[in-house]
Amino acid sequence: QALDFTVSFTRYEDFLSRTATVTIVNDNTVDAGRQNLQIRFQTRQCEPNLGLPAQVDFLQVGFEQSKSEDMALNNTGSCRLVVDWIRLDGQPSFEVVIDGVTYTASDDFTQINLDPPFTVDANSSAIWTARFTPIDGEPDTATLILHSNDANAVDGLTQVELVANATGPRLDVDPDPVEFGGKMIGKVAGIEVELASAGTADLEITGIEVVPVAALGSFDVDLSTLPGGAPSAQNVLTIAPNQSVKLLARYTPPNEPS
Q1: What is the pTM of this model?
Q2: Fewer CB within 10 Å: N-end or C-end of the chain?
């Protein structure tokens, strides 16, 4: 003889662990210790698990250009991941796009509440887009902070570093700008200009020229001091990181005052 019964469990949205005990009272005369037979049931607490890259590197992005990088939010946990707010700390050159809404970085540590919260189902992923639009050619960083119900995140916080123009070749010019100041009529003035390789990879220069502007007098550069002479596509000037070369910028005032 056997007795069959069914135990049902209803899951609540709090995802907490729960226990229950069924006690079967019987007249077992063979083993009196089993006259109150207990069967214990237990559920485990739901554990979302957020996977994100620790860093997003935009590499080199030129002035007045823009570059986007996708970030995958992977939930490898056993229940839904919920992100209820973010912070994007840095210069406004960085942005993050979430569900079609663009959030711009700021330096005032503003908490941005997501309404409704952003969710990722268990064993699923979603894509956010980070975007960088430089205001100059200098290296730049920002920090994206997410607050979620990730079971493994301390205080629910996960951090992603956004980096741009920190690796690869980079040119520094000194002085910048080149100021000649007041000069005597007919006297050629020269200022030494240093071209420094300030990046992490070889800097390749394939041309240097002076763009004419509406000004009194004329400007030019003496490229004879450069290794190999004037650079071109066929005569590339390569400067290793932390090395520099120098050229002479010249200004010739007009022969007569205006």
Answers
A1: 0.66
A2: N
